[in-house]
Amino acid sequence: MAIILRLDRVMADRKMTLNELSERVGVTNVNLSKLKTGKVSAVRFSTLNAICRALDCQPGDILEYQPDTE
Questions:
Q1: pLDDT score at 62
Q2: What per-residue confidence (pLDDT) applies to 1?
Q3: How much of the chain exceeds pLDDT 70, in percent?
Q4: 56, containing H or E segment
Q5: In this structure, which long-range contacts are made by residues 54-60, counting pairs with CB atoms below 8 Å and at least 24 apart in sequence?
Q6: b/e per residue, 52-63, with b = 16+ CB within 10 A?
Q7: What is the pLDDT of residue 5?
Q8: Rounded to an integer, what distance in angstroms lies between the CA atom of residue 3 and that of residue 63?
Q9: How far is CA 21 from CA 5, 60, 70, in A?
Q10: Could you tell me which residues are beta bridge partners of residue 65?
Q11: Distance from chain centroid for Cα 2
Q12: FRET pair for 15, CA 20 to 30 Å: which of 2, 51, 62, 69?
């Protein structure tokens, strides 16, 4: 199972910088950067909620499921 994070794409579509999103969401640049690059193993629902509110998007715009290829 692979969950692909598309935060960078949604941010680009909204023309929002990491600094601006960090201020709106209340999460550090470092943590958002890790989320943006997919170097996290978990995301709090409260963080996901704040990101979706700031970017005016749905969780499915940020998260994508790709089944494993065997």
A1: 95
A2: 54
A3: 97
A4: none
A5: 54/16, 54/21, 54/24, 54/25, 55/10, 55/11, 55/14, 55/16, 55/21, 56/14, 57/10, 57/14
A6: bebbebeeebbe
A7: 92
A8: 7
A9: 16, 18, 37
A10: 3
A11: 15
A12: 2
Q: Which residues contact 13 (CB under 8 A, 6 or more apart)?
A: none
The answer to whether 18 and 38 have CB atoms below 8 angstroms apart is no
Bridge pairing between strands 2-5 and 63-66: antiparallel
| pLDDT higher than threshold 90 for residue 70 | no
The CA distance from 60 to 55, in Å, is: 12
> In 26-64, which residue ranges form alpha helices assigned H by DSSP?
29-37, 45-55, 59-62
Q: Which residue carries 């170097």 as its tokens?
A: 39
Highest mean pLDDT range out of 34-38, 47-51, 63-67?
A: 47-51
